[in-house]
Write a structure and sequence with these properties.
Elements lengths: L1 H12 L31 H4 L1 E10 L14 E6 L5 E9 L2 E11 L5 E4 L8 E11 L4 E10 L2 E10 L6 H14 L6 E3 L10
């Protein structure tokens, strides 16, 4: 039951990698201060909304990116009147389409968001998302810090408006993730998929 609860809480947020075997990867120990993470200046909440595709991900749970079972997923940000986002994430898992919805509320600085109603997610003590860099119409570099009980999870994501990962975006992501403290073993570059994420 405890394992099921852990899986539910963390997969809802897209943080924990569970391989086909069902084995949970223990995260690599890292200490990252949010003040180290760049924040997009003059963040425009309206331009950021809409659909994004996850082109690349780095996480401290990923031990060998080349062997990862992760696939490309889409996240659609719907802007609400109170400046929060409803975020719908879709991915293909096994034979089913997995759809998760969460609400992110603005934090004390533009471009930083916290998980709404965090008490509804047992064990999750902290969830912060930062939009670090974006040009709104092509790419966005996102950083997430989450604490589940006493364990810290970190994620860097390269979002694209299309499923195409060009060399320039790949280099930007590698530089961003490396600066944060990830290494190549923690990185995944997704191949385009059609199942689920466009429906």
């Amino acid at each position: 039951m405890a394992l099921d609860l852990l899986w539910l809480s963390l997969t809802l947020l897209g943080i924990l990698q569970i391989q086909a075997s069902g084995k949970i990867h223990v995260p690599r120990s890292m200490k990252i201060n949010l003040s180290k993470i760049h924040l997009e200046s003059n963040f425009n909440e309206d331009r950021f909304q809409g659909k994004w595709y996850a082109l690349a991900v780095a996480e401290n749970t990923i031990q060998n990116g080349s062997d990862s079972q992760f696939q490309m997923y889409s996240s659609t940000f719907y802007l609400n009147d109170d400046h929060s986002y409803n975020v719908t994430t879709k991915r293909h898992k096994g034979r089913v389409c997995d759809c998760r919805i969460m609400t992110l509320v603005p934090s004390y600085v533009p471009g930083q968001f916290e998980l709404d109603n965090i008490k509804c997610y047992p064990g999750i003590l902290l969830y912060t998302m930062r939009v670090s860099f974006t040009n709104y119409n092509q790419y966005a570099l996102i950083f997430v810090k989450m604490q589940f009980k006493h364990i810290l999870f970190y994620e860097a994501t390269l979002y694209g408006r299309t499923k195409h990962l060009n060399a320039d975006l790949k280099d930007r992501f590698i530089d961003f993730a490396t600066f944060i403290g990830f290494n190549e073993e923690n990185m995944i570059f997704h191949d385009p998929v059609e199942e689920c994420i466009d429906n």
